[in-house]
Specification:
Structural class: mainly alpha
Number of domains: 1
Strand content: under 5%
Strand order of the largest sheet: 1-3-2
Largest sheet: 3 strands, mixed
Distance between the termini: 43 Å
Order of helices and strands: HHHHHHHHHEEEHHHHHHHHHH
Helix content: 55-70%
Number of strands: 3
Number of helices: 19
Amino acid sequence: MILIDTHIENNPNLYSIDRDLHRLVHRIELLDYINPTNIEQEKRNFFASKYNVNPQFKYKKIDFNAHKLQQALFSQDIDRIKDEDSRKFYRDVIYDYSGLIQCIETIGQGKKFYFNVLKSFGTPTDKDVENAQFILHFNDDVYNEEMFPVFNSEEALSYFNEFSKKFKFEYKVRLSNKISAAAMVQNNTQTLFLKKNHRFSANQLKVLANHEIGVHMVTTFNSLSHTLKIFHNGFPKNVETQEGLAVFSEYMSGCLTLYRLKELSYRVIAADSLRKGFNFCDTFDLLHNQYKLNREESYNISLRAHRGGGFTKDYTYLTGLKKVYNYYKEDRDLNTLLSGKVTISNAKLIEAWKQKGMVGENPYRNFAFDQNLNQSKTIDFILENLK
């Protein structure tokens, strides 16, 4: 701490800007606004229409002044930061946060939202789609008892509580019918949301525990331990690394299946359908009738892609997994990526900050990274051959 305190004295402008940005954005999280508030009702309506009427989703109202927030972001005098790499980094931070605010304020506004999403998240490339198709060509695994959805949300809650004991941090758990995923971590409140009325398989419980707790909660609590608040609020474009790291945790813990990789591949296909101008019904038809995915999964994946007006984030799970896998194969330090909501592209900057005493050691680690428990040769073959 003495080193860190000394560095604050030596770099007052950097820490001042970091604190100002935290004050402005720490309560704002895109996922708080992007999930529709009427998911279940619109699902019933969609199925009743025989898949012919696009859902009309409603969203949480924005509870902040987006224009004033943008003004405050761009009023930061980044040029006061002496270190050139740090100065460039915080300039990128401001542009990234500005883009995310534009996304939030245009949720539900169709193409306007979609074009803002493209600036913040991009869209699948042809290579990404080819990777998804490559995975989908593999024959399905034999369906074993671990894959049957037999556990309710209360039983899932007990499982997560038991799994979390070894991490020694405390977080809140809430049941919700307003999330599109089976589980979701809210970074700014340290809360795990579980989808109400969802049935979990034994494998899915392992997957979600290693994904949500092993990575998303670990990075949240590690981020809170650092003096620089940017680790908590998020580095620019951190989603790809964070989701890739979370799926990699599934792999290392031995619960990543071909079924799961195919699910991530269908998400790439759905995100790519937005680029082609598909509406909700079109994407659902593509997944359900052409790819023969069951209607529940087709609906959920279509929902994830079309929420807000076209949300491409989901393709980054697969691209992120490949990048983290390569990072691991290069024998680089995974703990650097667990230091907060960070990115692989900024790993060297984090190491430089550590050497200067600006960043301390992580108090929490992901136990799945201690040993590779994957036993599937098919999974290894896929990860080695993704482009």
